[in-house]
Amino acid sequence: MTIEASGSVVTYSRKVFIPLTMLCRDVCHYCTFAKAPREVRSPYLSRDEVLTIARTGVEAGCREALFTLGDRPEARYGAARDALAAMGFESTLAYLGAMAKAVLDETGLLPHLNAGLMDDADYAALRPVSASMGLMLETASDRLSERGGPHHGSPDKVPARRLEAIEAAGRAKVPFTTGLLIGIGETREERIEALLAIRDTHRRHGHIQEVIIQNFRAKPGTRMADHAEPSLDEHLWTIAVARLILGPDMVIQAPPNLHSPEELAAVLRAGVNDWGGVSPVTPDHVNPEAPWPHLDLLDRATAAAGRVLRERLAIGPAYARQPEAWMEPALAKVVRRSVDARGLPIVDGWHPGTSVPMPIEHRDGTTVRSNSVREILGRALEGVRLEEADIVRLFETDGPDVALVANAADGLRRRMAGDAITYVVNRNINYTNICLYKCGFCAFSKGTAKDLRGPAYKLDFEEVGRRAAEADDRGATEVCLQGGIHPDYDGHTYLNVLRAVRAAAPSIHIHAFSPLEVTHGASTLGLSLHDFLSMLKAEGLSTLPGTAAEVLDDEVRAIICPDKVNTAEWLEVMRTAHAVGLRSTATIMFGHVDRYANWARHLLRIRDLQEETGGFTEFVPLPFVHMEAPIWRRGQARSGPSARETLLMQAVARLVLHPLIPNIQTSWVKLGEQGVIAALRSGANDLGGVLMDESITRAAGGVNGQIWDADHMVTIAEAAGRFAMQRTTLYQPMTAAE
Asked: Model confidence over 134-166: pLDDT tens digits?
């Protein structure tokens, strides 16, 4: 199994450690965490102490609260029973649940609970207040619990009991962390037995989000103070075997503070792809003698192994991509809103449509995936149709490989479209926001009555014509007309809209009607798509906008727009429009419930239709603006794509659609100035329109204005190191006479 198979990203969790109690009924011979009552100031941290630690973590940018504690100390110590009774709790686990809830409710940190042995009822009780839980298997060897062994006198370390607790977590659908502690007297064969047991329980339940391969460290003051520590080679061997047994999809962790910085690259090459929790606030209470490495050092060590360090949540990325399957609804909502399509948190504060400037990360170097990325890019630059897996690989790129993809796309843009940054002077006319459809992403459409986000409206034909004439007088060469599907509208409505515009502005280019509107108009008149589109063209329709596409994959459409045209219907409208001589644009609206595979399928479907008809003039990536979208407000969608994903969409679209679609547009209303400039350096060559009266993104919560005039287009082009050129809708340069 190659290192490259597990990807270039290495994760870590920025967390605080909350040692709820250091009392424990076990007496592991290597442990310095567990204390006797006389050695601690109080059997349990108080609620105020817990929250103080958590709030300190929030201030330091942490997202996880790791609760560490001894196993049911009340079973051994009267002091623990008395303390719990005084606080009004029957057990340590009950108190843990209350404290986890307090941290979650009052700080927003996601709790991860390491609470020792638990059964089905315990997991059910704690699941609503935790993002994930964990229990180290440590070993599958009963021999280590015999007299003289490190686990003698520790009833909770019996392998069968720990395996049953891990199995119960699977039945409860708890995202779970487990692992091995190596070097405490077990054999290599016994390590393999433990790894096989973990593999088998994961195959039954799919709940093991991470496996830790932790190397024993001898600690003064313990019975095993003089026990030999495992060598680096022994640790690397065990990591490699774990990777082989558990497969490329498993997350394998090794604590970075238990190795010297010089050893970390070797640990990664052996198969590790996670560093676990790294706290900027609290020490490792289990290994207090080993301080956490500074994150800058960890980043450099990770890069030295050809990997990219990225933050994760307490719930692993594979589980954060589908949190509703693994968490209570309230927690799933928090997680889903926090992450990108990979399941990793968006940590820079940028979202499409906001006023926060898009952050642009520039990284030099290479990763373990750079060679395979270059191979894919080589085929794309030659115009070869990429496979879905190739495109997914491009969207997965991170760190230096993002620049690799963006630079390839920008070079291709220069070759295919030159250095001109084009734009069109146009006006949006959204003639009604009343719509029969209930697309989950849409904050523009209203019902037939007033809505929370403003009043419903319907422009009459005279007003549509007046706005078109006004646009013509102000120098617009195009009007873009779209609206909701009003219950009173039929095919005649769209024909009359065209007549009103053509009468008011005879020479203006009419760019109008999404495939949904075309389908509605044709069906209400009992006409075929071909006949209705021919009628629209005869009345003055010039081109069609490629909206209503969202993501052309019915797996996604079933969630975000189940009553809308499906993928095949959208494509058929465009195929027919091209057949009757109407050209169109193509769009994608991404970053909500979709995955990279869905994006890949969308791009390939656009490419394939373009190869068949040649009718698309441009491709327009539209990142999801989440703030007022109903599906986001219900907690069912992500908060738009990350900056990395947004720029990759611009670049990957250029590469996948080459050489069939020469124009890639970037949306200033979604990206803002800095984001648009970055997109123009990542394969885009067009700024779209000045968009007098843009309203759809504004309704969704976007704040980047309703118009960018020609002077602003020139300014942006110069900032990108290029020059601006006004164009027609069909990408012909405007002459002075025009």
From this structure: 999 999 999 999 998 889 988 889 999 999 999
Q: Which of 341, 257, 313 is nearest to 13 (CA)?
A: 313
Number of H helices and number of E strands within the chain?
A: 26, 18
Kindly list the distances between the CA atom of residue 731 and the CA atoms of 75, 586, 677, in Å, as whole numbers in the listed order. Answer: 78, 14, 20
Output the pLDDT for position 690: 85
CB 511 within 8 A of CB 426: yes
Between CA 455 and CA 432 the distance in angstroms is 11
The better pLDDT of the pair 629, 427 is held by 427
At 241, is the secondary structure helix, strand, or coil?
helix
Give the containing element (helix H, strand E) for 619. Answer: strand 616-623
Burial class (CB in 10 A: 0-12, 13-18, 19+), 92: buried
247 has a pLDDT exceeding 70: yes
Say whether pLDDT at 706 is over 80: no
User: What one-character-per-residue DSSP string does 661-679 give?
Assistant: ---BB--HHHHHHHHHHHH
Distance of CA 693 to the CA centre of its chain: 31
- β-pairing, 208-215 vs 132-134, is unpaired
Structure tokens at 251: 């997350």
What SS3 state is found at 48? helix
Torsion over CA: 614, 616, 618, 619 (sign): negative
Alpha-carbon gap, residue 691 to 707, rounded angstroms: 5
The most distant pair of C-alpha atoms in the chain lies apart, rounded to whole Å, by 97
Distance CA 622, CA 285 (A): 47
Give SS3 for 622.
strand
Where are the extended beta strands (E) located within 86-197? 110-114, 132-134, 176-182
348: which DSSP letter?
Answer: S
Residue partners of 359: CB distance under 8 A and separation at least 6: 348, 350, 643
Cα(177)–Cα(165) distance, rounded to whole angstroms?
12
pLDDT digits over 170-182, tens only? 999 999 999 999 9
* pTM score: 0.93
**Are the CB atoms for 567 and 314 separated by under 8 Å?**
no
DSSP state of 30: T
- Say which amino acid occupies 96: L
CB 464 within 8 A of CB 494: no
Closest CA to 269 of 231, 297, 318, 233: 233
Q: Which of 8-22, 168-182, 448-462 has the lowest mean pLDDT?
A: 448-462
Tell which residue, 631, 618, 667, 661, has the closest CA to residue 646: 667
Burial of 317 (0-12, 13-18, 19+ CB in 10 A): buried
Q: What's the distance, Cα to Cα, between the start and end of the chain in Å?
A: 62
Cα–Cα distance for residue pair 592/551, rounded to 1 Å: 10
- Beta-carbon contacts of 733 under 8 Å, excluding residues fewer than 6 positions away, are 725, 726, 727
